């Protein structure tokens, strides 16, 4: 249920500029959101957001979380306060920011992606941690004992990342059968990079494709990396699920791929930002659902007892205008499977 003043408060948060956000604690500054999060007589629950990139990069995810929390009666400044820590792409800051949240004795840390989860897990084995969406295998990486019984201080949702990447590879080949060499845009700081590439390599062999990883450590490297792809004469591009390739940078990646006449397959958001094909999870739904885990924990549940959920809804989006510009004709079989077509 929406409660009085909450929408206005969140709208004020979204209008804050970068300087205001820093003053509210996105780095190492004083208590965040203190401008409008006035403590009540009762003890406020405290939730920490740990973000690898910038707050702006995560706008849609933050919005989805606040909607989910509001639906469950959690109102900023009335019964909950939010501590935001954003590394602004400097991943080596994440461990220190995670420790700050632990020191503030937050009731739960929301990890925005696997890099944030890794830092949070190293900072604490007792504070509850929720990861609303990750493409990583939480069991294989040792974050939880099993999906059904996490057994530790972590829970959330996973999205079959390696399988999704293999599916994107298949879609690329099906859409452009002449493809033989494919670039894979990856962030090596993402813990799922190794396992994902292993699964993709097996899929590539069955499709008679060769794949080559192109590593991006920060957003300043996009132009250099795409120039390297041109030099390598790749036919297409598959993009890893990672925060660095999300909202803020998706449009730039799409532009560079189109300029190089590369058929690129990424997330649904990538297609919406001007990319050729998008396939995968719907992040906003998962982050809205992430509020469920936060709510349960704030009401006394233990992460160890909350099963990790597995995403079941994946969407195929074809940006027909972009694909035609590249000079590719999408087969009817692919078009018939598309959930959405952008023309």
Layout of secondary structure:
Elements lengths: L5 H10 L2 H9 L18 E7 L7 H13 L8 E7 L7 H10 L4 E4 L2 H10 L4 E7 L19 E5 L2 H15 L5 E6 L6 H14 L3 E6 L6 H11 L3 E4 L7 H13 L3 E4 L1 H5 L4 E4 L2 H16 L10 E2 L4 E5 H7 L5 H6 L2 E3 L1
Parallel strand pairs: 1-2, 1-3, 3-4, 4-5, 5-11, 6-7, 6-8, 8-9, 9-10, 12-13
Antiparallel strand pairs: 10-12
Helix pairs in contact: 3-11, 4-5, 6-7
Folded structure, characterized:
With 343 residues, the protein is an alpha/beta fold. It has 2 domains: 6-159 and 283-310, Response regulator (Rossmann fold, 3-Layer(aba) Sandwich); 161-280 and 314-342, Response regulator (Rossmann fold, 3-Layer(aba) Sandwich), CATH 3.40.50.2300. It has helices at residues 6-15, 18-26, 59-71, 94-103, 114-123, 161-175, 193-206, 222-232, 247-259, 268-272, 283-298, 320-326, 332-337, and strands at residues 45-51, 80-86, 108-111, 128-134, 154-158, 181-186, 210-215, 236-239, 263-266, 277-280, 309-310, 315-319, 340-342. The strands form 2 sheets. A 7-stranded mixed β-sheet has the order 7-6-8-9-10-12-13, sandwiched between helices. Helix 4 (94-103) packs across helix 5. The longest helix is centred in the last third of the chain and has 16 residues, at 283-298. It starts with 5 loop residues before the first helix and ends with a strand.
